[in-house]
Design brief:
The complex is a heterodimer of chains A (about 200) and B (about 450).
Chain A: H1 11-22, H2 43-53, E1 57-60, H3 66-73, E2 80-82, E3 108-112, E4 115-117, E5 122-126, H4 127-130, H5 135-138, E6 141-146, E7 151-152, H6 155-161, E8 169-173, E9 178-179, E10 187-188, E11 195-200
Parallel strand pairs in A: 1-11, 2-3, 3-6, 4-7, 6-11
Antiparallel strand pairs in A: 4-5, 5-8, 9-10
Chain B: H1 3-10, H2 14-36, H3 41-57, H4 59-72, E1 76-80, H5 83-96, E2 101-104, H6 108-112, H7 115-121, E3 125-128, H8 131-138, H9 155-166, H10 175-192, E4 195-198, E5 202-204, E6 209-214, H11 218-225, E7 228-234, E8 238-239, H12 245-256, E9 264-268, E10 276-282, H13 286-291, H14 306-310, H15 312-317, H16 328-338, H17 355-359, H18 366-380, H19 385-399, H20 401-417, H21 420-423, H22 444-454
Parallel strand pairs in B: 1-10, 2-3, 2-4, 4-7, 5-8, 7-10
Antiparallel strand pairs in B: 5-6, 6-9
Classes of the chains: A alpha/beta (about 200), B alpha/beta (about 450).
Chain lengths: ~200, ~450
């Protein structure tokens, strides 16, 4: 055997010592040449296509009409949490101290996204904008409002843009919750939001 | 039991094997379509491979950096040399929080450590919340695929399982109905859970945070509702900087299911106020694999499952035939390092076609490592007498042209003239489940000589 039988010692020091002994010679981290991924495309249009591809809906609207647009899409929503100042539709207010368990029967959550990614339809949502971390997941349906100027080409660009944030919790959301675990049949609405509508303003 | 013997059991239901084969190939095709849409895909794979190679060469330093950054954010960091230590640490955290109910999202590491049976013995309810994992948990089976844990089950089987355990109505396997029932069942579990356990897709050294990827949202439902979050990771999950997520998140979902990214890519950097976050860093044989020059690249693996979906053997033998936590080609190069004797048949469960290496997002030379393990195993492990005898005979025959000619003639004569029972029997593995080729009168040599004579 080319493996070495070693005594198993407890925890941290043993692991670090064993790595030191067994690791190969130092190799450099490759430099990422972003120009190789450069593409001259309409990032907004590709973003829209990808939102649909991942099972979401997207509409570019005028900010003044947002309440009417949301009402039209979710006519039956009664218990609505909005953490965005762009809409007045919220009926349930939340603070940082809200117990997430009380949000179990929320019909609709409206949050603002900070950044969209063209290549995969993902939108960056943080604990700062959703206020309660569980909100975008526990809600029945989800609306994300996104500034149409804030769409970048790919994930590498996205990480450049969010590098100076306050790091607590953040999530890239790409479409509604889904599963294909029963015979590979795609079913939308597993544990998280049953639908996602993105309003570009 | 050897891989081939377990595969034979799976192959008893031919219709199911055909479905399994096609379903996985379909996922492989989706991977291709998705990858081909990305400009610079091959360069992206090179970057993934290069970053992982750097990680392994500086792993101790990155782990120390990761630990110190995580601690600055109030995260509790634990280290476990093996499965027992890992399970004990999990238990000690549960005891501290007086936790009786735990929800878990997908983690192959906790499978590897057999965490569920360990906690269940202590009277703790552990619920797997990924739908596929919940299905196999109810069926008391291990996952058969790392991304599609219940791919071996038909929808009718899931229907019966849910009737028995969740009290659902018979639906002939209606996926929408079954998922909606599972959603209700698991929502109740999320709301009542004391602690959430998750795996880790990537641990970032320069921030001390971890990233968890799911499509269902189960990791987030668990973590954001429970009092404490325990994230379990193998030492190799480290990446140097957060910007490297821009490489790996572009590769992962496309390679796994053909999606451009998973629905949720959650970045956990700090616990919510009043809550706790723990990270357990686990070795469990990984540093030993690191010592093996020929096999250390297996630690690059980001667990996408692409090598399984493309493997002609995996697709037709099913994940359970490997009898290891990680099945398929990648499992067949990881497992011999854990127990050479127990898993000695796995590196042979391959045609060495190389398709696994071609699709691997971090360019692990899987098929070359399979071949290398075979060489180790033939030296270390006793081989079946028949296999040895056949190879010895083949060696002699191939070295003597006259004998080779005679052997060919005899074989052709036998195939044409011998009765069926003499050809399709236990001694001839090549006659198993396949028809041997129809034989022509001449071999190439004879045909060539005749052709020259006829001018």
């Amino acid at each position: 055997m080319n493996g070495l039988k070693k005594e198993i010692k407890m925890g941290r020091e043993a692991i670090l010592e064993s790595i030191k002994k067994n690791k190969p010679e130092l190799l450099t981290v490759p430099e990422i040449k972003k120009e190789i991924f450069a593409e001259d495309i309409n990032v907004k249009e590709v973003f829209k296509d990808n939102i649909v591809l991942v099972g979401g809906r997207i509409k570019e609207i005028n900010i003044e009409t947002i309440d009417a647009e949301i009402k039209e899409s979710y006519a039956n929503a009664k218990r609505i949490v909005s953490t965005s100042s762009k809409t007045t539709l919220g009926t349930v207010s939340v603070t940082k101290n809200t117990d997430p368990h009380t949000l179990e029967d929320i019909d609709l959550a409206i949050v603002e996204g900070e950044l969209g990614v063209s290549e995969n339809g993902a939108i960056w949502v943080t604990a700062d904008t959703s206020i309660v971390r569980a909100l975008p997941f526990i809600t029945n349906d989800l609306v994300i409002i996104l500034d149409k100027e804030k769409i970048c080409l790919h994930m590498l660009e996205a990480y450049d843009k969010i590098s100076n944030r306050d790091r607590n919790f953040g999530v890239f959301i790409s479409g509604p919750s889904k599963t294909a675990d029963i015979e590979q049949c795609l079913v939308v609405g597993a544990h998280g939001a049953m639908s996602l509508t993105v309003f570009l303003v | 039991m050897k891989h081939s013997e377990k595969a034979e059991i799976f192959n008893k239901d031919e219709a199911k094997v055909n479905w399994h084969d096609k379903a996985l190939w379909y996922v492989r095709e989706k991977r291709d379509n998705s990858a081909h849409k990305v400009k610079g895909w091959e360069y992206l794979r090179e970057l993934g491979s290069g970053i992982k190679a750097n990680v392994l060469s500086n792993l101790d330093e990155y782990l120390i950096q990761f630990e110190s950054n995580a601690k600055k954010n109030g995260i509790h960091v634990h280290w476990a040399s093996n499965a027992e230590e890992h399970n004990e640490i999990v238990n000690s955290i549960l005891v501290k929080h007086n936790a009786k109910k735990v929800v878990k999202s997908k983690s192959m590491l906790t499978e590897e450590c057999h965490l569920n049976p360990y906690l269940e013995k202590k009277g703790i309810e552990v619920i797997d919340t990924d739908l596929g994992e919940r299905i196999v948990q109810l069926a008391k089976e291990p996952p058969s695929h790392i991304v599609l844990p219940a791919i071996h089950k038909t929808k009718e089987e899931v229907d019966v399982l849910f009737q028995e355990h969740l009290g659902t109505k018979p639906s002939q396997g209606n996926p929408e109905y079954l998922v909606s029932e599972a959603r209700k069942h698991l929502r109740n579990k999320f709301l009542k859970a004391d602690v959430a356990i998750t795996g880790v897709n990537f641990a970032v050294a320069d921030t001390g945070g971890v990233v968890v990827c799911t499509n269902e949202g189960n990791a987030d439902m668990g973590v954001h509702l429970a009092k404490a979050h325990i994230a379990c990771m193998g030492i190799e999950k480290i990446i140097p900087q957060e910007k490297h997520l821009g490489v790996f998140l572009r590769l992962l979902a496309r390679s796994a299911t053909g999606q451009p990214i998973t629905t949720y890519s959650s970045h956990f950097n700090k616990a919510e106020e009043g809550k706790e976050m723990h990270i357990i860093i686990v070795d469990n044989g990984r540093t030993e694999q690191l010592s093996r020059e020929d096999f250390r690249a297996s630690l690059h693996c980001i667990r996408c499952g692409a090598c399984m979906n493309t493997c002609p053997i995996y697709r037709r033998s099913g994940g359970h035939s490997y009898d290891y936590t990680i099945p398929g080609p990648i499992g067949s190069i990881l497992s011999p390092g854990k127990d050479l004797k127990k898993y000695s048949s796995l590196p042979f469960a391959s045609t060495l076609c190389g398709s696994c290496s071609n699709v691997c997002p971090v360019k692990i030379n899987i098929h070359e490592q399979l071949y290398k393990w075979r060489q180790v195993i033939v030296k270390e492990e006793k081989q079946p007498i028949i296999k040895k005898a056949i190879l010895k005979t083949a060696g002699v025959v191939l070295s003597k042209p006259g004998l080779y000619d005679f052997a060919g003639k005899s074989a052709r004569f036998a195939l044409k003239n011998f009765p069926k029972f003499m050809i399709y029997n236990k001694l001839n593995a090549w006659g198993k489940a396949r028809d041997l080729p129809e034989v022509k009168n001449d071999n190439f040599d004879e045909w060539f000589k005749k052709r020259n004579k006829d001018g």
